[in-house]
Design brief:
A hairpin with a 2-residue loop joins strand 1 and strand 2 (11-16). With 57 residues, this protein is of the alpha+beta class. It has a 3-stranded antiparallel β-sheet, with helices on one face. It has one domain. The protein is built from 1 helix and 3 strands, in the order E-E-H-E. It has one helix spanning 38-46, and strands at 2-8, 11-16, 53-54.
Length: 57
């Protein structure tokens, strides 16, 4: 599995991430649609928070 990571202002990268392992009463689902948060562009462009960290929620 991969996730998108903010590395530094103006730079995002795909990085490998461990596959999720659901516990009792949990499930892994495939998304039907995705969208960005309004803050994603500002965080990626200006580095509001120090990286690296995965983006999206």
């Amino acid at each position: 599995m991969r996730h998108l990571v903010f590395v530094e202002p103006g730079r995002l990268a795909w990085q490998e991430a461990p596959d999720p392992e659901p516990g009792p009463g949990q499930a892994v689902v495939r998304p039907l649609a995705v969208a960005r948060c309004d803050l994603d562009a500002a965080m990626a462009g200006f580095g509001i928070f120090p990286g690296p960290y995965p983006v999206g929620h």
